[in-house]
Amino acid sequence: MDAKRSPLRATIVRPDPALPIQPFDLAMKVLLTTEAAGGAISLVMGCHEPGEGPPDRIHFNREEMFFVVEGIYELTAGDQTSTVGVGTMVLIPRNTEHHFRNVGDTTARILDWSLPDGQDRYFKAICDLAAGDGFNCAQVMEMGEPLDAYFPAVH
């Protein structure tokens, strides 16, 4: 058998040592970085208190997948809105406006895959910007374009 070896190496990431970040004051952990996956994918776990969730957004160059690990979310993808719980998987094709928020009364957790890579880089860049002199909406929008994060409500 003449199988080609992947340029990637096997990676096991436990949640405790995963990189904690807090973009937009939302608790997250980077479980799989763009670099570790050779640019193919990135994976973050979001932790949301009741009422929390990111704003509406669109990605033009990547698909995104969510998997609910804990809690109850209201999730909108395109023209579909559903209240979803543990075990629910959602595929968000590129060019689809989407958002979610924790509608339960306990902490909720969601896994967020980006295909291809990059979502982890965007969240880290937001954290770096906030760690400086803070940031404003214009800076977030300017940074979002090259990192494929578009927020329609701001435009």
What does the largest sheet look like?
6 strands, antiparallel
In CATH, what is the homologous superfamily? Jelly Rolls
Strand content: 25-35%
Strand line-up of the largest beta sheet: 1-2-3-9-4-7
N-to-C CA distance: 54 Å
The tally of domains stands at 1
Give the helix tally: 2
Overall SS class: alpha+beta
State the CATH architecture.
Answer: Sandwich
The arrangement of helices and strands along the chain is EEEEEEEEEHH
- What spatial form do the alpha-carbon principal axes imply? globular
Return the CATH topology.
Answer: Jelly Rolls
Mean pLDDT: 81
List keywords for this structure.
155 residues; Jelly Rolls; globular; single chain; six-stranded antiparallel sheet; alpha+beta; three-stranded antiparallel sheet
List the helices and strands and how they pair.
Elements: E1 19-21, E2 27-32, E3 42-48, E4 63-70, E5 73-77, E6 80-84, E7 89-92, E8 98-102, E9 108-115, H1 119-131, H2 137-144
Antiparallel strand pairs: 1-2, 2-3, 3-9, 4-7, 4-9, 5-6, 5-8
Task: Characterize the structure shown.
With 155 residues, the protein is α+β, with helices and mostly antiparallel strands. The chain has a single domain (19-145), classed as Jelly Rolls (Sandwich). It is built from two helices and nine strands; from the N terminus they run βββββββββαα. The protein has helices at residues 119-131, 137-144, and strands at 19-21, 27-32, 42-48, 63-70, 73-77, 80-84, 89-92, 98-102, 108-115. It has a six-stranded antiparallel beta sheet, with helices on one face. The longest helix has 13 residues, at 119-131. The chain is globular, with a radius of gyration of 16 Å. The relative contact order is 0.21. The mean pLDDT is 81.
